[in-house]
Amino acid sequence: MGLTYIKKITPPSAECAASAPALLLLLHGTGADEHNLLPLIDIVVPPNVVVASLRAPLNTPFGGYRWFSGYSSAPDPAALRSEIGASCDEVYDFIQAAPSTLGTDPDRVYLLGFSQGATTVWTALLSRWPRAGFISGALALSGRLMPDLKKPGTPLGARLAPAAQLAATRVFASHGGADDVTPLRMGLQNVEHFTAWLGEEAAASILTWREYEHDGHEIGAGAVRDAKAWLAAELAI
């Protein structure tokens, strides 16, 4: 498992103690590290889940780590050419190794990403998977579904999977209305791109979208509340 990570386990309940735990991967934003999203575990994650908080593979010039150069709102050319795809593939490698290294259920894998981490989550959802049912669900908070994923002539576009890949996958996406780092219009474009790729009926059946009018570039109280409820429903045994 090439990515550095911190592992936490939420205590199993009596009903699920005998089953292999689900896996939830946390993907932080630019300039942060694997410690950044750990506070979410105690307040958001339900019982019997192995949580692996990942460190992005690239250093930032100002300290911390990142999944790609630049920002979700303004990625560097290298990000679109290779870095976003390479980071996504490292996440895939981690998922494939997890059942043997972490003892998790290969059929219950979830991602939660914030900012650049959410942009990587969108890429992981739309890129071709190593096998069917590879990702069960994902939360993308304040990130960007890169438009290049919908352009066949680009490196990211070459990764695009058939829409049917997500038939059994659920997605929660949210954005702050006052976000001045990755503006709300990009969050709304995420929904447009996702709906155009899947088709209106399919997108409506798997996508939960939430907008928080007064939130900036953050995981605010409303997002915490709604992410907790979404995860509890998805991970109920």
| CATH architecture verdict | 3-Layer(aba) Sandwich
Spell the H/E element sequence. EEHEEEHEHEEHHEH
> What's the tally of helices?
6
Major sheet size, sense and barrel closure: 7 strands, mixed
The name of the CATH superfamily reads: Alpha/Beta hydrolase fold, catalytic domain
Mean pLDDT across the residues is 95
The separation of the N and C termini measures: 28 Å
Would you write up a description of this structure?
The chain has 237 residues and is of the alpha/beta class. It has one domain (5-234): Rossmann fold (3-Layer(aba) Sandwich). The chain contains 6 helices and 9 strands. It has helices spanning 39-44, 77-102, 116-126, 184-198, 200-206, 221-234, and strands at residues 5-9, 22-27, 49-54, 58-59, 65-66, 109-114, 137-141, 170-176, 207-212. The strands form 2 sheets. It has a 7-stranded mixed β-sheet with strand order 1-3-2-6-7-8-9, sandwiched between helices. Strands 4-5 form a two-stranded antiparallel sheet. A hairpin with a 5-residue loop joins strand 4 and strand 5. Helix 2 (77-102) packs across helix 3 (116-126) and helix 4 (184-198) packs across helix 5 (200-206). The longest helix has 26 residues, at 77-102. The protein is globular and about 50 Å long.
Key words describing this protein structure:
single chain, alpha/beta, Rossmann fold, 9 strands, two-stranded antiparallel ribbon, about 35% helix
How is the secondary structure organized here?
Blueprint: E1 5-9, E2 22-27, H1 39-44, E3 49-54, E4 58-59, E5 65-66, H2 77-102, E6 109-114, H3 116-126, E7 137-141, E8 170-176, H4 184-198, H5 200-206, E9 207-212, H6 221-234
Parallel strand pairs: 2-3, 2-6, 6-7, 7-8, 8-9
Antiparallel strand pairs: 1-3, 4-5
